[in-house]
Amino acid sequence: MIQRIQSVFLLLLALAMLSVLFLPLWSKLDPLSNQELVLTATKLTYAHADAGMSVPTPTYIIAVLAVASAAVALFEIFQFRNRFLQLKLGILNFLLIVATIGASFYFSGVGEKMLNIKIPGTFEAGFYLPTLALMLNLLANRFIRRDEQLVRSIDRLR
Question: What keywords does the record list, in alphabetical order (predicted)?
Fold first, then answer.
């Protein structure tokens, strides 16, 4: 049913993945040139761009993966009558979240090369939200599996 604990986990997962769209994922500050590079879900750009700086690098793949993961989670909530489909959607969501983390890590590596290689960048809150979503997805799948086992045991008693 919709009021089960896995529905709460899936809703929180969707909120976490949608929050990735609005929070910075990674940033790097060069104190010598006073330039800051910021990675968001849609672009990798200089915060205070001067004339002659490189144009923003589009990173829409992160946004697309995050929105797809949130949409799968919301769709999964309403598939409570078909637990096997919910488990398959959970596996798909796992892959989407891992791809989001991988794409974020890739573009942070691209950003490392764009501004003073000796100074490391810092991961922001938006980078850690997919990790939270991954844990919520695993918890939701665990409770879906538990519900399926409960239904099977009741069927055996009949």
Answer: Membrane, Transmembrane, Transmembrane helix
How far is it, in rounded angstroms, from Cα 19 to Cα 13? 10
CA 45, CA 102: separation in Å to the nearest integer? 19
pLDDT tens column, 81-139 = 898 999 999 999 999 999 999 999 999 999 888 877 788 889 999 999 999 999 999 99
pLDDT score, position 45 = 87
User: Would strands 122-123 and 57-58 be described as parallel, antiparallel, or unpaired?
Assistant: unpaired
Of 1.20.140.150, 1.10.510.10, 1.10.10.10, 3.40.50.261, the CATH number of 5-157 is 1.20.140.150
Q: Which residues are paired to 142 by β-bridges?
A: none
